[in-house]
Design brief:
The chain is α/β, with parallel strands linked by helices and about 900 residues long. It contains 29 helices and 17 strands. Helices cover about 50% and strands about 10% of the residues.
Length: about 900
């Protein structure tokens, strides 16, 4: 163990400790060492519910009253049905007084049973000192004031104890006539529901109490409910938490004692059954939790999460060994890079532990538990992707020296043996003029041992392939042309046909796309690498020459550059490059031994590269531009190309997953396995983003239409999702500036183009998971520029989702207002979710803009070598083809 590694680990651990301690600072409200005047009492336990008609037994009620007896003088009940009428008798066993209740609503027959049972219970139990007939019945709008007054008059006529009814303070002020038919005012003062911040809550209660007393000077006023929830969603400025609950109750109880206020704390025990009725917060008003354990101490400091030291230990120790391995293994990274990566891993682990803890601390139904398991799985994937992104960022920004860097072999003329290269050029419905330009560049290749096999497949129009055949004839014997009407297996099928036509002396197979213009020294600079007998693939980057034609193509060009200057460089460090089907050289003997190109896969190039590595061969990535092609002309073509790549990636993973996880024999190194799994994780993140978008839309509809059934997800989870997006975008912009050397405008244009493909990639990944035979989709080149309407239609699906997300954000704003913190977080999440869809619409519109005029073909930038030579090459008769 190196001292520097241990020092970094300790530093990160101490920083994490500071964060945990800061988030769990104790509060020390006034102590309470007296007995509470009264508590609202509902004896339902987890799994029990008056809605589901599952009621507590007499022994369970007795046990609850025994638990409460040392802490309170009285209890308040809400109903005289369903066995609750036995509470006064059981409470008497422990010397507790009872304020008995009758629940009134729109069911007249049930109301009559409530009154009968209430009267009988009062007559049978001398510890019932008053009754409350009706609870917030006017607030719920289930009864008129006059009808409620009728029930109150009947109760007063039959009972010899004071009779009242309970409503919030503002209902009493709105209906003062109700006071004529009660012996006392039972007022509910719950500042949480008013959105009052916890530090002003007691003051709010006392002020509203004084207001009610002033309005009804001749009536005793009882606070029928007063309290604060320990969990649930934020309501305006009111934050439910254990420390806020403890602080509010301890401060209120002392104030009530000094002022002689009569009250019932809301409530004795947490009631999970209230979640569908009052929302998630309804379950957390108890001074005891649902397991009948006290939630906080009445004397001394209170910590919101008493077990936080154990959470800190778990969050710190779990990643400790992997981080030590990383810090020792990658000592070549600069110290600030190692600190950055270790800190980010530590933050991700801490966040996951914290969210798991808070999820476990909730009261769950089977459905909510299932939903949260899915969300936690999604979060784990999200954080894992974030860590892989951070690793790439660390390696490419803070390495002292790249371990594997291949450069062109400049002094190759001294070689005595030049391996013969068979260059394969597959075509399908390609414009002849474009192919001629490619052929001219191939004729100019400065390489002594070369044949060029051009194969046209599945092109039904002879006007497309015959001019190419004629051009090959002009260029001489090194060029051979083949045409096949029907070839199965996509591009791979055509390439396999060419293997049978390849000169037996050829040692290297080269492949390029039909739109590429190559440098004369491509083969001369790279073929010498095959002197290493274990080297099977030499790959040069794809590059483009038409980026100046339009802003759309410029965006695409910079977006492509990120993969070749960032992703491929990163993967090359551990011999784990993605082979792509142009500008690639493959050792023929290896290709033959593997049975050629895979016809079942629409990304046969990447699949071959993985099979080569599974056999233990080496690959090399030379990040120098030797050929430049053409980019898609339309946004639709751009989408089809990325759909093909993503779909092919899933095909490869489905076929090779056993080798990648070590269940089937292969010579893949752990680092190669990592790169092939982690390298495609961001595309799975795009699929996850698509699923989350659909879920967010459904959830938004529920939040607007059914707010009691749908709660905002934990704000920690929302923060994690927003934080991941910020990391992803920040990492892209940072690396582009450092490795691609793009300007700020170019950087942003690349980010816009890449972001616009999120939905396309997500669909491709889901399609790849559930299907296996999607057709090969060509990327058309040299298409006519689309009209604006056609451009917008290319993004019609994304535009529809964008409109739904924006409407959802507006609906949440109108439904919850601007002061609801969790609603604002949700709106922010919807805004972030809308960005890929907005980028898609924007890119589609940009792609439909008229092309730039008077622009000569040219590369976007210099990739360490000079511009591709664009002059035509003469045929054997001295004329250009």
């Amino acid at each position: 163990m190196r001292r520097s590694s241990l020092s970094i680990l300790v530093l990160v651990g101490l920083a994490n400790l500071a964060v945990f301690a800061l988030l769990n600072r104790p509060v020390d409200p006034p102590p309470w060492d007296d007995v509470i005047a009264g508590a609202s009492f509902s004896p339902y336990r987890s799994g029990q519910s008056p809605v589901e008609k599952v009621f507590p037994s007499e022994d369970e009620i007795r046990s609850d009253l025994r638990t409460l007896a040392p802490h309170v003088r009285a209890v308040r009940t809400y109903t005289s049905l369903d066995g609750m009428d036995q509470i006064p008798r059981l409470a008497n066993e422990f010397g507790l007084e009872v304020t008995a209740g009758a629940w009134l609503d729109g069911d007249r027959k049930k109301n009559e049973r409530e009154l009968r049972n209430l009267v009988a219970s009062v007559a049978a139990n001398g510890n019932v000192n008053r009754v409350i007939v009706g609870n917030e019945v006017l607030l719920r709008g289930e009864m008129t004031p006059s009808r409620l007054a009728g029930y109150l008059r009947r109760a007063r006529a039959q009972l010899n104890v004071p009779v009242g009814t309970a409503e919030p303070w503002h209902v009493w002020l709105k209906h003062p006539e109700l006071a004529r038919d009660v012996d006392f005012i039972a007022v509910h003062l719950l500042p949480y529901w008013e959105g009052v911040p916890a530090d002003h809550a007691v003051e709010f209660v006392l002020d509203r109490l004084a207001e009610v007393k002033k309005r009804f000077p001749n009536k005793p006023v009882l606070i029928g409910e007063v309290g604060w929830p320990s969990n649930g969603r934020i309501r305006k400025g009111a934050v439910p938490s254990l420390e806020n609950q403890a602080a509010f109750l301890r401060e209120f109880l002392n104030a009530a004692k000094s002022r002689g206020v009569d009250y019932f704390v809301m409530e004795a025990f947490d009631q999970p059954w209230k979640i569908p009725v009052e929302g998630g917060v309804g379950a957390y008003w108890g001074i005891f939790d649902a397991a009948r354990a006290p939630k906080f101490a009445w004397v001394g400091p209170v910590v919101g999460t008493p077990s936080w030291p154990w959470l800190y230990a778990l969050a710190t120790l779990v990643p400790a060994l992997p981080l030590l391995w990383f810090l020792n293994r990658f000592e070549r990274y600069r110290t600030r890079g190692r600190v950055f990566f270790a800190g980010l891993v530590q933050a991700a682990c801490s966040l996951f532990v914290w969210i798991c803890y808070w999820t476990a601390a909730q009261y769950h139904t089977v459905y909510s538990a299932s939903a949260w398991l899915v969300l936690l799985g999604a979060l784990a994937l999200l954080l894992s992707i974030g860590i892989t992104e951070a690793f790439e960022l660390t390696e490419l920004l803070w390495h002292r020296k790249l371990a594997r860097r291949f450069r062109p072999v400049a002094d190759a003329k001294q070689l005595t043996h030049w391996p013969k290269v068979s260059l394969h050029l597959p075509l399908c419905n390609e414009p002849p003029d474009m192919v001629r330009e490619t052929l001219n560049s191939l004729a100019a290749l400065d390489y002594p041992e070369l044949e060029v096999l051009v194969v046209d497949n599945n092109t039904t129009d002879p006007g497309l392939w015959k001019p190419v055949a004629d051009a090959c004839e002009i260029l001489g014997p090194r060029f051979k042309f083949f045409h096949f009407d029907k070839v199965a297996g996509f591009k791979a099928g055509a390439l396999n046909l060419m293997l049978a036509e390849t000169d037996p002396a050829a040692e290297i197979i080269a492949v390029i796309d039909s739109d590429y213009v190559v440098r004369p020294d491509w083969l001369r600079n790279l073929a010498p690498y095959f002197a290493d007998p274990n080297l099977a693939i030499v790959q040069a980057p794809q590059d483009y020459r038409d980026g100046a034609q339009s802003f759309f193509k410029e965006m695409c060009g910079w977006e492509y550059a990120g993969f070749f200057d960032i992703g491929m460089v990163h993967r090359n460090e551990r011999n784990a490059i993605i082979q792509h089907g142009t500008m690639t050289l493959v050792r023929r003997s290896v290709l033959d031994s593997l049975g050629g190109w895979a016809t079942w896969c629409i990304c046969e190039d990447a699949e071959l590269g993985l099979r080569v590595m599974e056999k233990g061969y080496d690959t090399a990535y030379v990040n120098h531009s030797y050929g430049r092609g053409l980019m898609p002309d339309t946004y639709t073509a751009y989408q089809k190309q990325r759909f093909r790549w993503a779909y092919g990636a899933v095909q490869i993973l489905k076929r090779h997953w056993r080798e990648l996880v070590g269940l089937r024999e292969s010579k893949l190194s752990p680092a190669q396995r990592y790169h092939f799994i982690a390298g495609w994780l961001p595309w799975f993140a795009d699929a996850l983003n698509t699923a989350v978008t659909v879920l967010a839309l459904v959830w938004t509809a529920g939040l607007v239409a059914l707010p009691k059934l749908f709660e905002f997800p934990l704000r920690f989870f929302l923060t994690a999702a927003l934080g991941f997006f910020a990391l992803k975008v920040g990492k892209t912009l940072w690396l582009y500036a450092a490795r691609v050397h793009a300007s700020a405008d170019e950087n942003l244009s690349a980010a816009l183009a890449g972001l616009s493909l999120t939905h396309t990639i997500g669909k491709a990944m889901f399609s790849g998971l559930f299907t296996s035979d999607r057709p090969f989709m060509r990327t058309p080149k040299c298409e006519d520029q689309p009209a604006l309407v056609r451009g917008v239609l290319a993004s019609r699906e994304e535009s529809t989702i964008l409109a739904l997300l924006l409407l959802g954000a507006l609906a949440i704003g109108f439904r919850y207002g601007s002061q609801d913190v969790e609603a604002q977080l949700w709106i922010a999440l919807l805004g972030v979710q809308s960005l890929p869809y907005l980028a898609s619409l924007g890119t589609a519109v940009i792609s439909a803009l008229p092309p730039r005029t008077d622009v000569l073909p040219q590369p976007l930038r210099q990739r360490e070598y000079e511009t591709v030579m664009s002059s035509a090459v003469s045929g054997r008769d001295g004329t250009a083809v």
